[in-house]
Task: inverse folding
């Protein structure tokens, strides 16, 4: 009896807590879920759906209770499970990275790799590349950039316009697009990079909106909301992936049968190469004075200044380099779609990329891959849920942050060791 | 100390106001090359503000801060932004509340301090990206310099640990090592003994004397530990309410009635330490 | 620009400024107290607008005909329910993240913003909702030379209500124990807690106040524009945050002033330039202000602690 009494209070508290949560849920649900505005001839009327309120309250009650129970009885084992994530030894991460690269290279040759899958993976890889690029700005230099999509847009439009007006090929435009995006990065960064972190966030957000509004309204150049169509598709050293072209075609040159999927596979390898370029660059520069200065700046700007580093130059280099990778990714996006419009460059893209970086663990290259698969890949596979997709996406962002505020993989490896062991010194984590 | 005792730093009429508050008023003093010059004074006397003016974190309201290198090259510090004071005039400082790159390793802290030299060697990242020998050699030199200071400070064993995980005393030493890696002509230490125990303070005092001797360094020191100040300084400047009330060699300062009265109003043990010195 | 156009745009700008000012207060308070950008605040405003719209429809269904009474009831209702949302958002998405890396709460807030938008979209449909004008009546004022300036009754109500709320609110912060607790938490949360301030409750109340002010703005938007959809919170939110930064984030009078400035820029821009680039102007001004006066119009210049 006494033992049962002692057992009861926590459970009663949980029940009361859950009941309270259910009441709040009901209160929240009443005005928005409980009634639905309906348009009809006489104006707005209301559709009552009170059962939904009850369902919501019941779901919250059950969910809250389960969470509390799980927190009480399963927490130790759960904690053990999640704690093991960052504890993975460095070498196994390196191996895992190379396994991922090998898998990505071989994947198109697998029997199950149909066109659709490759297409989705290409999309994920775009976000992986953007994540790796933004990670230079946010993860290494600690600059909160909420307008990264602007540079992505600049890259895409730079390619589309250069190829349309000057007939330049993709391979010439690609570096140009990166360069132009970097120049925009410098132009924006130079005045605003002395600002404190959160001001920088809002200014970059504003910059992203400015670029979008300009793209939307500068009809003469961007064709406004209708966007640019018929963007030149990429070639492999001049070999086109069309059925018939002015120049030689890929299929014709190698004497194989034309298949539309060839281009899909080519684009996949192209973005894989671009993404690998991004991560290899990021990892190399992290070990150079430039990269170390970024991280030092993130840790303590005042100390950096006391050691003779010019914070504006340091920040500017991170900002410009990050922007240039977005520019590269942008021109890939343009060539893949063959069509771009301002719609593809809204704030939600910036938010997604930032979420990938933060969720990945700020600085972890593999973490970013996992986060991109989670945030971009999964919703792609759940397209059937259509209208619930973004709800789930937003909810996942919140839940994952609550679960791991420091990101999935957040262990930092020093960029230089006093006595490097020959085996691990040169190994890089892709 | 050194040859014809040339003046390294000449501070003239330094005044610093924040809104209506005058933190420093009309302060003048000089620091000789090769000397350890201490700035002491009760809490709130404006010592750290002097440092912040010297290192460019504050722009003085009035005043002239002139630094002369051994080569004869002169710098007017009040006109230079903070990072140029460190980069060109080679005035490097530590901070009262330790500012390490806490998430980076101990060794990285010391390598970052050699940023300027290394950046040049890496050809502004180009040679580094290509992994050219010229950069690899430069980086090895930087690591060796860091290793020297790690050994000096007894931090070699924790070289690859995050700086933030070091115990407090080691963090203080690491900050000094980091400043030394930046190659200072004038090293400004803001309360280096704060929070250290007696043994650590004694070690610090030996260390400062040694590095001054071996590296031909000049040191400007803010410190509350009177025993340490009296033991190692060549020259002491006493501030009270933003003004200099006395300066001279430790023996003179210790006997000055104005200093004693300034201190006796405030923490007593400091005043007692001041009158007695360390035996 | 003639005097009548000037005065007309001034009145319109003041009205717009009232919206932005009210929303900006929520941003600036939350930023002041926990140092985070409450990204979901714009969507809280959107929820306020929806609750108000639903409230008006409910009242007309049950036959409340008195307009002042309807406005009063809807105002209270919108403030209450929206405050619940504000409270819940803080409790669910921000409180557990206090003390975690700086970016975590921001990501959580962006996630929350996406959730709220899509929740309303699913619950109420994606189509824009429109409401017949409830408050009619306008005054035409002769400004000489046969020129007129039109001021609607609604504009007067909006401006008066906003001024009253802001005055009351300033009093709360300056002179009540709640305001004191809030300012103490803002300065140093740990110390405030040691001195007996219930920090969690103070932060919750901050969110509740911010959300109810946003609800007022939402109700006014419903009445003023008559058209709302689930997406209105995003751009209004960014502009209100811009207003808060412009005025000096953390400063309450700054938020009001910033809101006013944004409202005036928006209303005067089309007089001279292409309407399509109005948002560009707002953000352009923000960037310029931050470059030349980084602390905003009324923010205190910060002395860097070294």
Result:
């Amino acid at each position: 009896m006494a033992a049962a009494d002692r057992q009861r209070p926590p459970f009663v508290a949980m029940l009361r807590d859950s009941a309270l949560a259910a009441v709040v849920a009901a209160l929240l649900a009443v005005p928005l879920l409980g009634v639905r505005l309906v348009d009809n001839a006489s104006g707005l009327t209301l559709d009552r759906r009170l059962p939904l309120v009850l369902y919501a309250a019941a779901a919250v009650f059950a969910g809250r209770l389960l969470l509390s129970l799980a927190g009480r009885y399963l927490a130790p084992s759960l904690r053990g499970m999640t704690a093991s994530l960052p504890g993975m030894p460095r070498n196994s991460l390196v191996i895992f990275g190379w396994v991922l690269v090998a898998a990505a290279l071989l994947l198109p040759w697998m029997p199950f790799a149909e066109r659709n899958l490759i297409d989705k993976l290409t999309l994920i890889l775009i976000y992986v590349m953007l994540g790796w690029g933004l990670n230079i700005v946010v993860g290494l230099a600690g600059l909160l950039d909420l307008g990264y999509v602007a540079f992505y847009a600049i890259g895409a439009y730079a390619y589309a316009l250069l190829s349309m007006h000057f007939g330049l090929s993709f391979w010439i435009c690609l570096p140009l697009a990166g360069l132009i995006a970097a120049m925009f990065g410098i132009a924006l960064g130079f005045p605003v990079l002395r600002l404190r972190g959160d001001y920088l966030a809002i200014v970059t957000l504003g910059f992203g909106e400015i670029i979008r509004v300009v793209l939307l309204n500068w009809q003469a150049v961007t064709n406004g909301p209708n966007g640019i169509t018929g963007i030149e598709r990429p070639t492999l050293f001049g070999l086109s992936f069309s059925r018939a072209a002015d120049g030689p075609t890929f299929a014709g040159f190698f004497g194989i049968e034309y298949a539309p999927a060839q281009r899909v596979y080519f684009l996949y390898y192209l973005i894989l190469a671009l993404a690998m370029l991004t991560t290899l660059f990021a990892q190399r520069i992290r070990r150079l004075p430039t990269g170390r200065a970024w991280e030092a700046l993130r840790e303590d700007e005042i100390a950096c200044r006391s050691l003779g580093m010019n914070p504006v130059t340091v920040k500017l280099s991170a900002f410009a380099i990050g922007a240039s990778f977005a520019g590269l990714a942008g021109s890939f996006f343009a060539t893949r779609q063959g069509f771009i419009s301002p719609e593809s460059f809204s704030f939600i893209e910036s938010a997604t990329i930032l979420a990938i970086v933060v969720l990945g663990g700020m600085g972890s290259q593999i973490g970013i891959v996992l986060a991109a698969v989670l945030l971009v890949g999964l919703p792609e596979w759940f397209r059937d849920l259509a209208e619930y997709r973004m709800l789930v996406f937003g909810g996942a962002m919140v839940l994952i942050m609550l679960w791991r505020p420091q990101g999935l993989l957040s262990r930092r490896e020093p960029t230089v060791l006093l006595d490097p062991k020959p085996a691990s010194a040169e190994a890089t984590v892709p | 100390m050194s040859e014809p005792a040339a003046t390294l730093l000449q501070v003239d009429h330094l005044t610093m106001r924040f809104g209506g508050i005058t933190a420093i008023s009309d302060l003048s003093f000089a620091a000789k090359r090769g000397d350890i010059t201490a700035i002491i004074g009760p809490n709130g006397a404006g010592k750290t503000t002097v440092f912040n003016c010297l290192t460019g974190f504050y722009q003085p309201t009035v005043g002239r801060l002139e630094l002369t290198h051994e080569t004869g090259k002169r710098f007017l510090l009040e006109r230079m932004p903070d990072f140029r004071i460190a980069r060109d005039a080679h005035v490097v400082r530590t901070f009262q509340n330790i500012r390490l790159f806490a998430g980076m390793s101990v060794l990285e802290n010391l390598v970052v301090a050699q940023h300027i030299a290394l950046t040049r060697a890496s050809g502004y990242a180009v040679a580094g990206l290509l992994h050219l020998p010229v950069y690899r050699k430069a980086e090895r030199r930087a690591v060796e310099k860091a290793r020297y200071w790690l050994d000096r400070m007894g931090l070699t064993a924790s070289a690859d640990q995050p700086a933030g995980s070091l115990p407090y005393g080691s963090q203080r030493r690491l900050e000094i090592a980091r400043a030394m890696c930046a190659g200072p002509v004038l090293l400004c230490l803001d309360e280096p003994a704060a929070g250290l125990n007696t043994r650590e303070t004694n070690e610090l005092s030996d260390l400062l004397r040694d590095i001054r001797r071996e590296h031909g360094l000049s040191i400007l020191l803010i410190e509350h530990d009177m025993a340490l100040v009296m033991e190692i300084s060549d020259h002491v400047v006493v501030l009270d309410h933003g003004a200099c009330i006395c300066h001279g060699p430790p023996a003179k300062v210790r006997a000055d009635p104005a200093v004693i009265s300034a201190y006796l109003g405030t923490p007593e043990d400091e005043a007692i330490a001041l009158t007695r010195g360390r035996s | 620009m003639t005097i009548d156009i000037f005065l007309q745009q001034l009145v319109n700008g003041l009205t717009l400024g009232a919206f932005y000012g009210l929303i900006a207060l929520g941003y600036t308070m939350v930023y002041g107290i926990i140092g985070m950008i409450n990204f979901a605040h714009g969507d809280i405003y959107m929820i306020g607008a929806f609750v108000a719209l639903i409230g008006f429809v409910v009242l007309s269904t049950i036959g409340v005909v008195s307009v002042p009474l309807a406005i009063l009831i809807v105002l209270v209702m919108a403030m209450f329910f929206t405050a619940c949302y504000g409270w819940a958002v803080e409790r669910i998405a921000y409180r557990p993240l206090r003390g975690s890396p700086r970016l975590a709460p921001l990501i959580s807030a962006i996630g929350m913003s996406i959730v709220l938008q899509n929740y309303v979209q699913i619950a109420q449909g994606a189509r824009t909702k429109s409401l017949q004008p409830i408050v009619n009546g306008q005054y035409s004022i002769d400004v000489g030379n046969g020129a007129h300036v039109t001021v609607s009754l609604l504009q007067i109500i909006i401006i008066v209500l906003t001024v009253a709320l802001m005055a009351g609110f300033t009093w709360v912060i300056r002179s009540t124990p709640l305001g004191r607790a809030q300012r103490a938490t803002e300065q140093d949360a740990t110390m405030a807690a040691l001195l007996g301030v219930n920090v969690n409750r103070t932060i919750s109340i901050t969110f509740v106040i911010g959300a109810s002010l946003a609800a007022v703005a939402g109700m006014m938007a419903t009445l003023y524009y008559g058209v709302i959809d689930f997406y209105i919170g995003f751009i209004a939110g960014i502009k209100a945050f811009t207003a808060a930064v412009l005025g000096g984030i953390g400063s309450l009078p700054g938020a009001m002033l910033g809101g006013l400035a944004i409202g005036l820029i928006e209303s005067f821009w089309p007089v001279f330039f292409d309407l399509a680039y109005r948002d560009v102007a707002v953000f352009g001004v923000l960037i310029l202000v931050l470059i030349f006066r980084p602390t905003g119009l009324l923010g205190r210049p910060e002395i860097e602690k070294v």
